[in-house]
Amino acid sequence: MLTRRLAAGGLAIAGGLGLWLGTRQPTTSCAPSAPEDERVHQIEPARIVVRPWLGPHHVYGIFVVPNELRDQRYSVTLAVRDFNEPVIRNLTRDKPYLDPELSTPGHYLERAYVPTRAALRFFIRGRFGDLRTACQWQLAFRER
Q1: How far apart are CA 123 and CA 103, in angstroms?
Q2: How far apart are alpha carbons 83 and 117 in whole angstroms?
Q3: By 3-state DSSP, what share of the chain in percent is helix, strand and coil, each rounded to 5?
Q4: What pTM was computed for the model?
């Protein structure tokens, strides 16, 4: 009986802590930042999806990118707060990502993923609000 009560109490504490960390506000405000290099094109996401509890590939941003940047001469980096990682791009036109809500002429849609382990790191550090805030995300295109 005591074991059940301890387990139930531990589960309640863990659930409450998870709820508190998951609903936290961003730790920093969204101040506009100018790129350090004029050859760098930075784009904010049109939509973000943050559901790491569903497993891999459920934390990503969808970016509306001008067609001029759909070229191999650009390397792409995803930055979310202090997380920076190169993006593996799908440059083939045979299987593009389509979303009628976000599609605009002269642009294509690019999905950039944050690994689940990195999303959980945001959660554990109490910065999950930063991950859920679109202005914290940047897709940077640099000419090689």
Answers
A1: 31
A2: 12
A3: 30, 30, 40
A4: 0.75
Query: Could you tell me the residue range of the domain that residue 10 belongs to?
Result: 2-27+36-143
Number of domains in the chain: 1
Q: What is the pLDDT of residues 24-51, one digit of tens each?
A: 555 566 755 655 677 889 999 999 999 8
Q: Is 131 in contact with 35 (CB distance < 8 Å)?
A: no
Amino acid sitting at position 139: L
On the 0-12 / 13-18 / 19+ scale of CB atoms within 10 A, 141 is buried
Strand pairing category for 74-80 and 83-86:
antiparallel
Extract the runs of DSSP E, i.e. beta strands, from 15-93.
Answer: 41-43, 47-50, 59-66, 74-80, 83-86
